[in-house]
Amino acid sequence: MEFATFADRAAAIDAEPADLEIVAHVRDLLENANDDLEIVARFVQGRVFPAWRSRTLDIGPTTCYEAIARAAGTNVSATDVEDRLAEIGEIGEVAAGYDFGGQQGLGAFTEGGASDPLTVREVFETLSDLAAADGSGSHDTKVDLLFGLFNRCESAEARYLARLVLSEMRIGVGEGAVRDAISEAFDVPGERVERALQVSNDYGQVARVARDDGLEGLDAMDLEVGRPVQAMLAQAGTVTDALEEWDEAAVEWKYDGARIQLHYDPENGADVATTRVFSRNMEDVTDALPEVVEFAEATLTEPTILDGEVVAVDDDGAPLPFQEVLKRFRRKHDVAKAREDIEVRPVFFDCLHADGDDLLEEPLTTRHDRLEALLADDQTQDPETVDGLSLCWRTDDPERIESIDAEALEARHEGIMLKDPESTYSPGRRGKHWRKRKPDVETLDCLITGAEWGEGRRATFLGTFELSVRDGDTLETVGKVATGITDEKLDDLTDLLEPYIVAEDGQDVDLEPEIVLEVGYEEIQTSPTYSSGYALRFPRFQGVRHDKDPADADSLERLERLRA
């Protein structure tokens, strides 16, 4: 498929306000994708690689601006591109405004000549090469590769290439639209497409299987050890609500740690055990967490996928705050030294796969029994002595639940989780079957969209951070936070945020919405000051959510639900 064809269809989708018509456009796009079906099914969502792959383009805005500037001509600089962006506000429109195609240099021509139409596959293969660039000189290589693509683009192509490169496609195509489009395009039931997506987490693969192998092929798709799936999520809830809806509740401690998914294969076809650890966002964090690998290899004996958390502990084994986990969670260098400073331990509360059996459709109680059997030394072992096992109590007694909550807090954990004992495991879903109950101040995970340079001794630090929540494809402000942040933390935050500065006006700074903050607050009030219509009263900085992507930030809908 020519990339111009994809861009034209993306433009039609972008201009379409009706959900059903969007699905119809995506359906037509998939039906005509031919050998490029897997690529197109990802591109239309703004993805280059499958969601479960840790592979990323690793391109900052500046790299993209440099490539656009080079393709636009010798009189255009990256600063010019950035200035246009500040004026227009959208990188696709900026790219579309330049006249590309006349520049020469590495990557400017293909073997067939510069006049050859750019194809979807060429874009994918070039971006794959770009993602593989590493080490000394990789920045220049990435700019060269991007320049070669932009130099072959017409206006519409440049618009969607720029958006794709910077993960800002934003044409209104969500996961549900692609799921429904696959169902319509290849005449397979939507619920079977949904199941295949849950176990594979790869819209491209599911689209191809649906087209080539139909319903039989979709039903044959299973979980695969080594390929992560999205984590099932919880929403805030009360004991009263849970017991009103369920006959009884499964109660677990809520750990102040970072979510992990453990994949273990004792042989992996080569008589060598393979262990992979993935974060909540399916990032491979195996190398940063050798304790989890050692636990798996010392404990497990069959192919397994487990869901759990990793918790930082002190010398006595007592849990440390979440911020201590983050010092280990994404560590890429000096892991051994970091391990000496901060020890982590895994604790697991769910089993998704064991010895060839997918367990997503099994009730929670069955999955937990399987988990206990996997981790216990023998069937008679007291569950309280099983290493790495999160205990699960079943009760319909509110007083018993309160006592479990008190025990969790006494053990320095966050509180408790309430779960429906009969619930299946729904990857990526945040539903009423899992509920988190925390006794402390409620928190929101907000995107930082702006900041202010400080004054006096804090003049070199960014502070007073503007907070926003998601409302569909837009962001709405809900307040500013400046309290609860030490000078040391402000220094760290400034280093973290400076690469995402897009504009400055005096002390005021506009930021790309890439960093998620956890913010506590006392109350949500109506307010004309912020675009959401609400303001957080007494917001207080809790920490950076390094384990969350921008798409995982809280929504305006959740904010309104918390206020209700």
From TrEMBL:
Molecular function terms, GO-annotated: ATP binding; DNA binding; DNA ligase (ATP) activity; metal ion binding
Keyword annotations of the record: ATP-binding, Cell cycle, Cell division, DNA damage, DNA recombination, DNA repair, DNA replication, Ligase, Magnesium, Metal-binding, Nucleotide-binding
Residue positions binding ATP: 252, 259, 280, 309, 349, 430, 436
Catalyzed reactions: ATP + (deoxyribonucleotide)n-3'-hydroxyl + 5'-phospho-(deoxyribonucleotide)m = (deoxyribonucleotide)n+m + AMP + diphosphate
Species annotation: Natronorubrum thiooxidans
Entry-linked InterPro entries: ATP-dep_DNA_ligase, DNA_ligae_ATP-dep_bac/arc, DNA_ligase_ATP-dep, DNA_ligase_ATP-dep_C, DNA_ligase_ATP-dep_cent, DNA_ligase_ATP-dep_CS, DNA_ligase_ATP-dep_N, DNA_ligase_N_sf
Function noted in UniProt: DNA ligase that seals nicks in double-stranded DNA during DNA replication, DNA recombination and DNA repair.
Cofactor(s) required, per the database record: Mg(2+)
Start and end residues of each ATP-dependent DNA ligase family profile domain: 337-471
HAMAP family in alphabetical order: DNA_ligase
Name of the protein in its database record: DNA ligase
Catalytic site positions: 254
